[in-house]
Amino acid sequence: MRPVHPFRRFFRHLTSHPWQVKRHFSETALQHIEHAIAANEHLHAGEIRVVIESGLPLAAIMQGVSPRQRAIHLFGQLNIWDTEQNNGVLIYLMLADKDVEIIADRGINRHVQAQGWQHICQQMEGMFRSGQFEQGVTHGITAIGEHLAEYFPPQATPRNELCNHVLVL
């Protein structure tokens, strides 16, 4: 992400609203993403959660919260860290900053270095720049799922510890 003047960032976030997410993600696209999560989770024992936020709340804007800081906060708030094998992964999209963050729990982070997650984020951001929002997210889910499948093979009795619903803030 390139540096942005604080006033421009403040204005972008202040004028962002959750309904703006619909410009990039229709109800059908959100359902496709949820189905992609569910299908992907049958290939491994990990858990994937997607959060799309149009802009930060006013208090967070005033505090200068970065997309990464917000993603880490949501990772904890949504209990993504609380999976049995510590293998939950959050895909966080901040539309106002045009940023993607992947936050993974310690179980999978033992195996996948930060540059591996960053590579997936860059691929997704490239797809978003070309207007492929749904495809960008499903690509991220698939790429994360490949890492999870390598280190957390599917269980005989699959569990769904985290909601597959895309959370729009």
From TrEMBL:
Transmembrane segments: none annotated. Residues 25-146 form the TPM domain. Pfam families: TPM_phosphatase. It comes from the Bacteria. This is TPM domain-containing protein.
